[in-house]
Amino acid sequence: MIYKDRNNSTSERVEHLLSLMTLEEKIGQLIQPFGWQTYENKDGKIELTKEFKEQVKNGGIGSLYGVLRADPWTGVTIETGLSPEEGAEAVNEIQRYAIEHSRLGIPILIGEECSHGHMAIGATVFPVPLSLGSTWNVDLYREMCRAVARETRSQGGAATYSPVLDVVRDPRWGRTEECFGEDAYLISELAVASVEGLQGESLDQEDSVVATLKHFVGYGSSEGGRNAGPVHMGKRELLEVDMLPFKKAVEAGAVSIMPAYNEIDGMPCTTNRELLQDILRTEWGFDGMVITDCGAIDMLATGHDTAEGGMDAAVQAISAGIDMEMSGEMFGKYLLEAVRQEKLDTSIVDTAVRRVLNLKFKLGLFDSPYADPKNAAKVIGSEEHTALARKIAGEGVVLLKNEGKILPLSKASGKIAVIGPNADVGYNQLGDYTSPQPSSKVTTVLGGIRSKFAEEPGRVLYAPGCRIKDDSKEGFDYALTCAKDADTVVMVVGGSSARDFGEGSIDLKTGASKVTDHSWSDMDCGEGIDRMSLKLSGAQLELIQEIYKLGKPLVVVYINGRPIAEPWIEDHAHAILEAWYPGQEGGHAIADILFGDVNPSGKLTISIPKHVGQLPVYYNGKRSRGKRYLEDDSQPRYPFGYGLSYTEFSYSNLTVQPEVIPADGVATVTVEVTNTGDMEGAEVVQMYISDTVSVITRPAKELKGFRKVTLAPGESTTVEFTVGAEQLEYIGLDYKPVVEPGEFRVLVGKHVNDTLHATLIVQED
């Protein structure tokens, strides 16, 4: 059999297998049912369901979604779920049945969620992408992606639905936490690193998985910040901003892409031929697989209302370029009958099947379909990955304010009161798309601070004070009592993207966990949780204000999935740390920074407004967008690229050589950076470009380069950037990239509003 012989080329194997398949078998390859529904875990023994066996018998299954996913949606808990070793064994059992009981023995593509770690029980939970972006450390992120790939593939997962490459335009959107930030260039750099890290040197290796780019495209620019809402964007901005990260990731070798739920100019992305055919495949040369988001095809008939029913929706989608449907319901129900009724040509089906099979052969699934359970037990949640999670979390924390250099705290500074709803609730610091965790797995901020005083536990006091969303003040008195008895107060507040994991509640009067019939949900962020405000939920601000009245040094730590705009806190707190959702090691990382064991180096990748009424407030807007409102100016409270350190850095000697170049020329930009403080630290050196005059209006400034450098006290280094067509071009009148002759300003510095500048001239040829 040609397709079973690894000595034949992939194309030969694909075409031979395709020629042997019935129409039912072909359509089976295009559907992806929910994986956790294919088996039952009975006292540690896996039993495949009758429904799964029937599907294998009646045409087969191309892929399964979330076999290993565990969370309240799947209903898989720590008690009913699978250990790393058991998970690998379960995937092998599923794979073995599909291969041995289907006519052609085609293996199943196992797809898993891995936005910030493999979403399976026991896997390492890294910081969310908003925190990862704040590290500005591309190499470290690539290393993390390698770790995620190792953990996922060790259990048989061969595809992941990450990275999320959406450009955030309205942080009220609940999925802001899943994104890297508001700048397309920065996202592009991380996108490339993600593809390199996840896919490795070759897809058929035991530590490589498919990277699925999502959500293509414009998903982060929805109307009103509402999830999957319409996007109002011109083609030029779409090409120049939102598509850029996807284009760079495709050029890096990404082999899978997921269209977004939203519509753009009246056209749903799921059926947008210009996006999926003309641009993605013809212009960019993408030859991989296109898979829908869950339920996206159904939305065509019950949401967008561009299809008359399920069959019409399914035909529209596959005809536009969709190869596989996540959830599989619409393709499974309607494609066979559509062909029989001559509403769908078999050649379109063949094209989609060809892409799916090609990916499976590239992954080596036909030759090595099974995982090694012992390796899974060794790799998943390893000490190496745990240490990596702590390092990344530390680099992603942004120091927003440090009045009087109150930080770092001295370990000899008396008692510390750790107060707030996010001080000791592990799930609240993990973010959405997280599996159930044993309490011992996650180190909270309270746990991290206590670890610094292991020999003097009495010096650390704790009170939750309030919940995230509840207005109850029943915990205020106990919190105030703790604060009065302390020398310094660390308030840990923010938001929560924790699903209902059945953890019970916290006694606000004592801080102790208690079992109740009601599992309190504090979720105010995450997928489908969009807000009208960027203020703290519930009674959190009032709690902070009451504690402030005590006159104690007040440090605020934000743990959250979107920016917080609270002017009172920004004016009154002595220090503010923005930690986003820092993952399982976040408590250790935050404590390391609070006590100076780690010098903060995170920088904002998203502008933080003074007030929600300023939105949109992203830094790279057009010059014509106006200067101020009646009440205040239009500048954010904290600008893009901003972040303090415990040391100081100075910039000097900015040069551009040569100062004049042709349109296809290259200039070298150099700047000297010096650590003028008394502590080693890392600085993110940022380069922006401003096109002073252009035929098409341009943003005032655009990030076009960055370097993270570590310097000892008194040490200097010269940082170099290259400026050429890629940094100077924009989408011209004909919707093609053009470098327009004229004057450009090159700006280099600490953040977008603190830079040195020089001039570069592009001459006519």
Q: How many helices?
A: 22
Gross CATH architecture of the largest domain? Alpha-Beta Barrel
What would the CATH topology of the largest domain be?
TIM Barrel
Helix content: 25-40%
Model regions low in confidence, pLDDT < 50 over at least 5 residues: none
C-alpha-based Rg, rounded: 26 Å
Distance between the termini: 59 Å
Compute the number of structural domains. 3
Class from helix and strand fractions: alpha/beta
Provide mean pLDDT, rounded: 96
InterPro entries: Cellulose_Degrad_GH3, Fn3-like, GH, Glyco_hydro_3_C, Glyco_hydro_3_C_sf, Glyco_hydro_3_N, Glyco_hydro_3_N_sf, Ig-like_fold
Domain Fibronectin type III-like: 683-752
Family: Belongs to the glycosyl hydrolase 3 family.
Pfam families: Fn3-like, Glyco_hydro_3, Glyco_hydro_3_C
Q: Can you walk me through this structure?
A:
The protein has 765 residues and is of the alpha/beta class. The protein has three domains: 7-378, Glycoside hydrolase, family 3, N-terminal domain (TIM Barrel), CATH 3.20.20.300; 397-625, 3-Layer(aba) Sandwich (Rossmann fold), CATH 3.40.50.1700; 649-763, Sandwich (Immunoglobulin-like). Helices cover 29% and strands 19% of the residues. The protein contains 22 helices and 30 strands. It has a six-stranded parallel sheet with strand order 4-5-6-7-8-11. Strand 14 (416-419), helix 17 (445-452) and strand 15 (460-463) form a beta-alpha-beta unit. The chain is globular. The model has no long low-confidence stretch (mean pLDDT 96).
